[in-house]
Every structure is written in structure tokens, then in C-alpha cells.
Amino acid sequence: MNRARGRALIVGNWKMHKMAGEGRAFAEALLSRSASLTEAVELVVCPPFTALAAVAEVLREGPIALGAQTMHQGEFGPFTGEISAPMLRELGVRYVVLGHSERRAFCGETDSAVNAKVHAALRFGLVPIIAVGETADEHAQGLAHERVRAQTRAAFAGVGADAAATCVVAYEPIWAIGSGLVDEPYGAARTIGGIRAAVPGLERARVLYGGSMKPANAAALFAEEPIDGGLVGGASLELESFIALAAAARHRLPL
Ligand code: PGA
């Protein structure tokens, strides 16, 4: 593992799951069960907005970081239903997922909106986790590299190399999300190599794999040097599987 990229990173994306009380209970259990893991693996949980405050209260300044699943690019303003970076910062949020394929598909989030959000996150001190990925058709046509490199370049337009190096990119093939299908580890690692080469600074940034990552397939993915961790949906909702993923990520580190 390239030590310059630091610890492995496992991000739990809860999507539209867990009430505030469930989130709080999960965070308490995770905190007490993960003490031996957090030195080697950075853990982030991304609850829905309605559970952020309850989870923040549990995680406070501890070793597990809080993330949000999206945000608006503005600071304040007439944007009904939106949440800004300063509002997230006020709750103790440190990471924000931007451009998840579900937001691109269901909420019309464009490459240029993702780019504006990346700039806003950096300006207000949040670490963006930028999701990119190709559709099943693009994958079948051999267009995955081209697609994710274009998305990555668009997301980072106008971002300097040093700032880009502080960001996280998540390569999430859309056909693998929630489907039980997982990209072949060597192929995912090659695509991630292409992502790193697309934007100056990303050779130093953490790049994750996402899409049906489970304890059973994680070790093979983490054995690939370019994969720094995972953006995890379904398997992040159960404490045991989330902890098993963190343990698998820890084992990739040389002692
Ligand atoms: P999944 O979701 O792990 O349930 O496939 C990953 C994601 O959408 O971030």
C-alpha cells in the first residue's frame, strides 16, 4: 500500500435508511466495537439528514467521522429543501458524498452541478467523496474508462492539484450498485488507475470502490493496491458486516 495515501477508508452510505434513534444506536455500537480497527482504518458513516444530529452526538470528536449523502452548492438562499455545506459543518459533518449515481439518475444532478458542489465543499472545509461510474451498457461496450475519466475531469474542473489530492473519489459501476454483482477486482483497479491519471493530484488522493461490496468479496478488492477502501451501501446497514469490511481493510496494511 502507498503510505502517502494514508489509512484505508470505509464509508457507509445509509441512503434512505434508519430513523434517528436507530442511527444513534448503530453509532453507539459501532463506536464500542471498532476501537481496535480505527487506528488502521478510517470509518465514516453517512446517515440521512434527519439522523445526522443524533449520530453526531454519539460520534462527537471520536475516531469515526460523520458524512452527508449530498448537499447544495450554495451557502444560504431560496433553495427549498436543500442543505448547505455550512449547515453540515455546524453538525460536525466532515465528509460529503457528491454525484452519487442515484442522485444523478433520480435528482437530475449534472456533471456541472457536481463540479460546483466540489468547489463549495472545499471552500467550506468538507472532504468531498465524488462518485463516478458507468452504466451496464457503457460497461458492455467497453466504454467504462472513457466514461469515468470524463466524469472525473468534469467534477474537478478548476480544482488545483493540491486540493484534488485532499478529495476522495469513489468508483461505483452503476450496474454493481445494489445488484449483488461486483466488478472483477483487477478490472476495478485498472479503472481506478485511469481515474487517478485523469486529474492532476488524484495520484495522491484516496480512491474507493463501491457497488455490492460485502465481507465475502472485500478482501479480493482490497488486495489490489490502487483500491484504498470502499463506499458501501447495503453492507453498511448491518453492524456485523460493516465491522467485517473494516477488518478486511485493516488486513491489507503491511505491519
Ligand atoms: P451497495 O451501494 O453497496 O448497496 O451496492 C453502494 C453505493 O451505492 O454507494
How would you describe this structure to a colleague?
The protein has eleven helices and eight strands. By secondary structure, the chain is of the alpha/beta class. An eight-stranded parallel beta barrel has the order 1-2-3-4-5-6-7-8, surrounded by five helices. The radius of gyration is 17 Å and the shape is globular. 2-phosphoglycolic acid (PGA) binds near residues 13, 177, 178 and 231. The site of 2-phosphoglycolic acid (PGA) has 13 residues, from strand 8.
List unreliable stretches of 5+ residues. Answer: none
Q: Report the structural category.
A: alpha/beta
Describe the global form. Answer: globular
Q: Order of strands across the biggest sheet?
A: 1-2-3-4-5-6-7-8
Number of helices: 11
Bound molecules: 2-phosphoglycolic acid
How is the main sheet built? 8 strands, parallel, barrel
